[in-house]
């Protein structure tokens, strides 16, 4: 059998990069209405949505390049937990019915990255001094 665990850092990096790009898309929807506006959100944006968008831009950019990955992922995870409880839970308990699945998935993927690190291909790794 082949040991596939050697691929773990690379698959983790792919998870980090793809998730960061998807998270960034939520920010561009808020600020640029690209690829489209967020359904049901009034423009100009409420203050809480501006703050959420700023967190999304900053944390997704940091995670994308793997700089301060754990901190960025932890903050993004917290934002998504707050988004679920403030924006989805009031519409019922079940995530499939309150449209909260995406917030929950982001929350737990970011929480995993906060504990596991960014994997391969990070600026965090490139900045570490080489050990002898």
Low-confidence stretches: none
pLDDT averaged over residues: 94
Percentage of β-strand residues? under 5%
What gap, in angstroms, lies between the N and C termini? 32 Å
Order of helices and strands: HHHHHH
Helical content class: 55-70%
Number of strand elements:
0
Structural class: mainly alpha
Tell me about the largest β-sheet.
Answer: none
What is the radius of gyration?
16 Å
Number of self-contained structural domains: 1
Indicate the overall shape.
globular
| Structure annotation, total helices | 6
What does this structure look like?
This is Putative oxidoreductase. There is one protein chain. The protein is mainly α and 132 residues long. It has one domain (4-127). Helices cover 67% and strands 0% of the residues. The chain is built from 6 helices and no strands.
What keywords describe this structure?
132 residues, mainly alpha
Would you kindly provide a brief summary of this structure?
This protein is mainly α and 132 residues long. It has six helices and no strands. The chain has one domain (4-127).
Element layout with pairings:
Elements: H1 8-31, H2 47-65, H3 69-88, H4 95-98, H5 101-116, H6 123-127
Helix pairs in contact: 1-2, 1-5, 2-3, 3-5
């Amino acid at each position: 059998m082949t040991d596939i665990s050697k691929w773990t850092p690379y698959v983790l990096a792919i998870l980090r990069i793809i998730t960061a790009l998807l998270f960034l898309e939520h920010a561009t929807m808020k600020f640029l209405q690209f690829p489209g506006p967020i359904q049901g959100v009034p423009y100009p944006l409420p203050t809480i949505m501006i703050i959420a968008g700023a967190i999304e831009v900053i944390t997704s950019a940091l995670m994308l390049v793997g700089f301060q990955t754990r901190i960025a992922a932890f903050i993004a995870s917290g934002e998504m937990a707050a988004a679920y409880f403030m924006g989805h839970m009031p519409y019922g308990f079940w995530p499939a019915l309150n449209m909260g699945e995406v917030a929950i998935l982001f929350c737990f993927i970011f929480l995993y990255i906060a504990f596991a690190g960014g994997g391969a291909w990070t600026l965090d790794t490139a900045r570490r001094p080489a050990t002898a």
